[in-house]
Specification:
The chain has five helices and four strands; from the N terminus they run E-E-E-H-H-H-H-E-H. With 157 residues, the chain is α+β, with helices and mostly antiparallel strands. The longest helix is centred in the middle third of the chain and has 14 residues, at 66-79.
Amino acid sequence: MMAYEGRTYHGIKGAGSDKDEWHPTRILVEKPEPGPTERQNVTVLRELKAKDEDELGGYGWGYNGGGTSRAAAAILADALDLGTPEQAGLSMSEWPQDAIRVALREDFCVDFLGQFADEWRLGRAAVLRWARGWYVQRGISELPEALRELPPLVDLD
């Protein structure tokens, strides 16, 4: 098993009303940093790129729709170390699709992304704990590798 790597997913909704100021919606993968007062010079590890953004419309959140499902697929594929959404069977536009992972994707939309505002941050540990609970609640014992051991908890002592 790979050692746990902490990550923070940072969603930034595109802004602007005309082409000169419009920016695409982005999901950055950042090195975890504590609260907003300590988040000065965040290290961006990579950006999750939306495949066929021009054709399919890219990422979205704060509603239930295709952009939200594409964002969920990208975050889950990355958090679970499954490669791309297409490789993981999470894609909306490519086959084969994995029925269990598609249901996971859509429930992630309802529980998280549909509730988010224009900008948000979500820790990988929260995604993994939620996903593990999702599998357990459905009685699915075959877990993705990343869910076989959960991230370490903060020591209370």
